[in-house]
Fold Nucleotidyl transferase AbiEii toxin, Type IV TA system.
Amino acid sequence: MKRVNFVDPIKFIELLNKEHVKYLLIGRQALVQYGAPLQSFDYDFYIAPELENLKKIIKIAHKFKMEIVPPDPQKALKLTLHADNLKVDVCRARKYPIKGGTLFFEEMYENRTVFRKGKFKVDVPSLIDLKKTKLTRNTAKDREDLKYIDELISRLN
């Protein structure tokens, strides 16, 4: 089967940076950046909730000819971008409810870790903030991710 719309995730992230999208790569792909031996075939981003930031994401999706769900994302706090080989979930809430409090995008962004390789860069939450996001659900995958996060934190201390 021939791929009609193949989107390279690296090119997608490069365009996020070029367009100055304020984002954090979250979920398992963020853990992979820290060195966790995990696989994930989708990408999850938490973006600054401002409309201008969302418009940049929509522009990038159009450039890559990605399907946008819902079709009118300005009214949604979560949207999904689809290509034949890539699924990108985008959350744009101002805050993230967690056990015992709230994580705000701005705080997570200020605490972020920037991974660089050559000219490529990707912004991810700190391990502490990633751990807090994983504590909101109790799925088997999240429990597994928490073990990796704890292991990574202990290695860094």
About this structure: The mean pLDDT is 92. The domain at 9-152 is CATH 3.30.460.40 (Beta Polymerase; domain 2).
